[in-house]
Design brief:
This protein is mostly beta strands. It has one domain: Pnp Oxidase, Chain A (Roll), CATH 2.30.110. It is built from four helices and twelve strands; from the N terminus they run βββββαβαββββαββα. A seven-stranded antiparallel sheet has the order 3-2-6-9-10-5-4. A three-stranded antiparallel sheet has the order 1-11-12, with no helix packed on it. A two-stranded antiparallel ribbon has the order 7-8. A hairpin with a 2-residue loop joins strand 9 and strand 10. Bound molecules: flavin mononucleotide. The site of flavin mononucleotide (FMN) has 21 residues, from strand 3 and strand 5.
Length: 192
């Protein structure tokens, strides 16, 4: 028996990211949970929605560059902090140790196991939010979270997941089955 909850967006949990940009000459960061994967070709694009009142979009729009970093569970306090206070009245430039990649205006967080630098590709004006679509220029990952074949091991990243219903950060669980693979057993029984 299911209950109709009305128009509740139930696309949770979502990955918690920290988006960074240079605003008025200073790095600024905010927590962003409303992230999306736009494609899986080349170039690769990602998207996220940011409230128009936030401070960070000013820098994204000025330089058309930004960073998207994935914090591990050990950075939960700092992640929540940059999602609680605004750069409009609080200097968040010293919260993290930073490094620079290929882009001048995409501040990258040393303590995050995975960081992406992006060039702004498109902005979609959507009611209270702007949806930013970025082309991924480079992805930096700690050696310690990489498998031997150079791919990112999500279990070692220990990402934070956000749930709107409980308003809590959650951790990743165990793997369940291989993708594009486990369904083959059903496919085999359903020929024709
Ligand atoms: C867990 C969490 C997730 C958040 N996700 C988003 C989001 O997806 N989009 C958004 O606009 N704000 C989001 N926020 C709110 C911003 O991070 C927050 O308002 C921040 O202080 C804005 O900073 P700024 O004004 O310096 O840009 C989130 C906050 C938290 C704590």
């Amino acid at each position: 028996m299911k209950r109709n909850l009305g128009p509740v967006n139930a696309l949770y949990p979502s990955l918690i990211t920290i988006v960074g940009a240079v605003v008025d000459g200073k790095p600024n960061f905010l927590a962003v949970a409303h992230v999306g994967i736009m494609n899986h070709g080349q170039p690769q694009y990602l998207s996220f929605g940011i409230n128009k009142n936030h401070h960070t979009p000013k820098g994204i729009l000025e330089h058309r560059e930004f960073s998207v970093c994935i914090p591990g569970e050990n950075l939960v306090v700092e992640t929540d902090y940059v999602g609680l206070v605004t750069g409009r009245n609080t200097d968040k430039s010293q919260v993290f140790e930073l490094f620079q990649g290929e882009l001048e205006h995409a501040p990258l967080i040393q303590g995050c196991p995975v960081c992406m630098e992006c060039r702004l590709a498109r902005v979609v004006d959507f009611e209270t939010h702007d949806v930013f679509i970025g082309e991924i220029v480079a992805t930096h990952a700690e050696e310690s979270v990489l498998r031997e074949d150079g791919t990112i091991d999500i279990a070692r990243v220990r990402p934070l997941l956000f749930d709107m219903a409980s308003i809590k950060y959650w951790s990743l669980g165990a793997e369940v089955a291989p993708c594009w693979n486990v369904g083959k057993q059903l496919k085999a029984t359903r020929r024709g």
